[in-house]
Write a structure and sequence with these properties.
mainly alpha
């Protein structure tokens, strides 16, 4: 089971890289829109995050409050990305909120013990 958890964690980190990297690439170009890496990153993060929340450890599961917080953040990011993916341009505040929520989600994962 540990190998499965590590594979899910690896894929989860790839999803984070896709989401944040795609967003930063769009921000640098000056044209704020949702690109394919951002969409795929949000999907990968959501699916692997749900997989990681399964009780795969030997009694070392994260707190339920942390899991719910991360799920709410992941669903918010996914909704922000999914429903804006076909627009030619996204509002600057919406785009920066997507980046901000992505960073907050990473902070919750790292600092909440």
């Amino acid at each position: 089971m540990e190998a499965l958890r590590l594979v899910l964690l690896y894929l989860h980190l790839i999803g984070f890289a896709l989401l944040l990297g795609g967003a930063i690439a769009q921000y640098v170009t000056g044209r704020l829109r949702i690109n394919a890496p951002m969409l795929w990153g949000a999907v990968v993060q959501l699916v692997t995050g749900i997989g990681l929340s399964a009780p795969l450890r030997d009694g070392d599961e994260p707190a339920p409050a942390k899991l719910v917080t991360k799920l709410v953040l992941a669903l918010a990011i996914f909704a922000m990305v999914f429903f804006s993916r076909k627009r030619d341009a996204v509002n600057r505040g919406h785009f920066l909120a997507t980046i901000g929520l992505t960073l907050v989600t990473a902070a919750v994962a790292v600092f909440w013990r």
